[in-house]
Amino acid sequence: MTNFKLAFFDIDGTLAEHSDPKNQTTMLQRVPESTKLAIKNLKSVGIEPIIATGRNHGMIRELLDALKIDSFIANNGRYVVFQNKKVSHDTFDHEQVKEIVEYFDHRKIDYCFETDDHLFINRNSKFLDDGSMGLERIGEGEIPSEVIQMIVRSEKSFEIPIPKIQAVKVAPRVYDITMENSNKSVGVNKILTAMNIDANESLAFGDEENDIEMFNAVGYGVSMGNGIDEIKKLSDYVTSDVSDNGIWNACKYLNLF
User: What percent of the chain has pLDDT over 90?
Assistant: First the structure.
């Protein structure tokens, strides 16, 4: 047993295998049975599991319900809930979204609008659903209200020449377009502060670029075996791949239950 009180989990590549637009499956279908059991066991010993993801609440609701998790950091730290109570909810202003849209339209890059519970694409968009997104089509040129971030697919990393806006790699060929300094550590710190818990009493599991700041905000970081080299170097322990019982194996190695 350990003194950890909180365990933060990335989803794609960590709790669940990565999605594939060519082979559509739900997020829950990609979660190994051993991972589901690990989450249950953590709760039984008093460690609060918290989802920390770039995805929005609407996309992870089924997963939260199935795993009986009521705390999460969504939209890369811009929407935070702890034990079913909202901690924060940040959005773009309308002019920022218009500028981002103009940038991508000029370059003929398809995108998706992300609010707290919905994902929208314009009528003629060719943006691909990965099977777990539930995209809703809206009028051509229409911009929804309260956009938290946007999503694009790209083979190569890139930067957006718009003040205070950044592109964050969240999965292979997937980037979230969000405000600068928006990342999972923002949500982690808000929860730690609200609950008066020391960072050393928390640990995090992740595999990608958008998990780096989260690892720096907690007391112990676990990289998945399928993680990128940068996150492995930063981690305190590297477990096996998500598809090879990585979460379960790490929990047993750390004597979490």
Answer: 83
Which residues face 82 on adjacent strands?
85
Query: b/e map of 193-209 (b: 16 or more CB within 10 Å)?
Result: eebeeeeebbbbbbbbb
Residue-level pLDDT at 159:
87
Alpha carbons 221 and 188: distance in angstroms, whole number: 13
User: How far apart (Å, rounded) are the C-alpha atoms in residues 212 and 210?
Assistant: 6
Identify the CATH number of the domain defined by range 94-179: 3.30.1240.10
Q: Which pairing describes strands 111-114 and 165-171: parallel, antiparallel, or unpaired? A: unpaired
Q: Quick: pLDDT tens for 78-137.
A: 999 999 999 999 999 999 999 999 999 999 999 999 999 999 999 999 998 876 678 999
Residue pair 203/8 in contact (Cβ under 8 Å)? The answer is: yes
Which of the 8 DSSP states describes residue 255? T
CATH 3.40.50.1000 location in the chain: 6-90+182-253
CATH pick for 6-90+182-253 out of 3.30.420.10, 3.40.50.1100, 3.40.630.30, 3.40.50.1000: 3.40.50.1000
Q: Count CB neighbours of 164 within 10 A.
A: 11
Smallest Cα–Cα separation from 184: which of 68, 11, 19? 11
Distance, CA of 12 to CA of 245 (rounded, Å): 14
